[in-house]
Amino acid sequence: MVKYYSSENYSVEDWLNQASDDLRTAQDYINKDENYARKNVCLHSHQSIEKNLKAYLIAKKVDIPNSHNLEKLQKMCEEIDVNFSKINSSNLRNLTGLASDSRYPQLEHEKRIITADDAKKAYNSAVEINDFVLNKIKEIDKEPDKSPDLDIDF
Asked: Contact at 8 Å (CB) between 78 and 84?
């Protein structure tokens, strides 16, 4: 069972700042060819996307799951805005797998070498998806206030 956290307890800005930090960390590692660097690019790219998707959900006042599954987060966003279907879900599945491979030891028969190409694709996906999500959050800020107009005389 997935635990959910109340969106009321979180700041959109805090999540966006954390996402930005993760993306900068991935960028710092992107031109290094060592295995640890490629793993860190994938991990931080994934984390950046995850935090941006959660920021969108918080901005829409949706409780966020304690989950690292990017496809699940995308589907939650897509339920609010169908344009989130434009995000390539197989790309998200791959990123979730790369991040998991980077984060935890693998059994010998499951070990996957993360290539420089994997790392660059992860980083480029993070940049693209994060730009998309940030634009969606900006649209929320432009939405008219949906609270009823109360004309009260005192």
From this structure: yes
In this structure, is residue 92 part of a structural domain?
yes
**Angstrom distances, CA of residue 143 to CA of 66, 115, 128, 137:** 28, 42, 23, 10
Sign of the Cα pseudo-torsion (85, 90, 93, 98, in order): negative
Note the helical H segments in the chain: 12-29, 35-59, 70-80, 89-103, 116-142
Locate 22 and state its tokens: 């993760």
In a domain, 90, yes or no: yes
Q: Which CATH number fits the domain that encloses residue 93?
A: 1.20.120.330
In a domain, 66, yes or no: yes
**Which structural domain range is residue 90 located in?**
11-141
The residue ranges of the chain whose pLDDT is under 50 are 147-150, 152, 154
Whole-structure pTM value: 0.84
